[in-house]
Each structure stands twice: as C-alpha cells, then as structure tokens.
Design a protein that fits this description.
This protein is mainly alpha-helical. It contains four helices and no strands. The chain is rod-shaped and about 65 Å long.
C-alpha cells in the first residue's frame, strides 16, 4: 500500500511540477479553495431557494391555490434541506483541511489509491 501511495505522490508531483515537500501545502490550498467555492455556491443556491419558497408560500396563502406554486414550495423545501446538508458537509471538510492539512492530504491520497 505504501508503494502505491508513493507512486500517487510522485505522479502528483510530476503533474504539478513541484517537489514532494510542497505537495501537501499545495493540495491543502487547492482543497480549501474548492471547498470555499462549493460553500459559496451552496449558500447562493440556498438564498435563491429560500426566496422561491417565500414567494410560493405567499401565493399559496392568498387562497389562490396554484399547483405550480405548491410544487415550487415542495421542491424548494427539499432543495433547502439538501443544501443545508451540503453546507454542513463542506464546513466539516473545510475545518478538516484547515485544522490538519497533512492528515487530510494523506486521506485524499489514500482515496486516490483505492
């Protein structure tokens, strides 16, 4: 297993054009940046979904029961739940990469080997 991990590390170093000592900080920077990007996207989608949900609630409350509004309400609630879960996962991932980039990098490399 360790030979496979070393092979993955060597391949990554060749592709990134860096030395193996620089790999873990570079991998950490990459994952932190992509996780923050995913968090921003999830938060924007959460805001849009909440806005759609609010508009749908107003339409349904006005006794103008509209099937499209009811479906929009249900879908926006489901999307909000999924986005909250995604945000939680992204926050945990981000905290892991910030708290211990070495351990997170080793876990990521081990996943690449599998």
């Amino acid at each position: 297993m360790s030979e496979e991990i070393n092979a993955v590390i060597d391949n990554l170093c060749i592709k990134l054009g860096t030395a193996s000592q620089v790999l873990i900080p570079e991998l950490a920077k990459y994952h932190i940046a992509t996780t923050i990007s995913a968090l921003v996207i999830c938060i924007v989608l959460l805001i849009v979904s909440a806005w759609i949900c609010r508009k749908s609630i107003k339409i349904v409350r006005e006794d103008e029961f509209d099937t499209a509004a009811a479906i929009g309400l249900m879908l926006s609630v489901v999307v909000i739940i999924v986005l909250v879960i995604c945000i939680g996962v992204q926050v945990v991932t981000l905290v892991g990469w910030i708290a211990s980039p070495t351990v997170s990098a080793i876990e990521e490399i081990t996943r690449m080997v599998r």
